[in-house]
Specification:
It is built from three helices and four strands. It has 90 residues and is α+β, with helices and mostly antiparallel strands. It is globular.
């Protein structure tokens, strides 16, 4: 599959750093968007989901702009849980 992983982070967020390290260790490529530098994208995610939790993960499926958004505390509780979810899309 040609899916892309996008993560929304905030500078200084320990959970965001933990996710980035886990993705790197798992050899999962990702693209990071800090919420302060990409406010318009982040605002759209918050509007669609109703959540501001970080790190939020979006998986773009193939060539479409459609894909699931995973929110900590709602869709996953641990970094390992989201890593396993992401691996299911790879």
């Amino acid at each position: 599959m040609d899916n892309s992983v996008y993560i929304f982070t905030m500078n200084g967020c320990p959970y965001c750093l933990e996710l980035k390290n886990a993705l790197t260790e798992s050899n999962i490529p990702y693209r990071e968007f800090t919420i302060h530098e990409n406010r318009h994208i982040w605002d759209q995610i918050v509007k669609q989901t109703g959540f501001r939790n970080l790190p939020t993960v979006y998986i773009k499926e193939g060539d479409s702009d459609v894909g699931p958004v995973y929110i900590p505390g709602k869709d996953f509780d641990t970094i390992q849980e989201i890593i396993d979810i992401i691996k299911g899309y790879m």
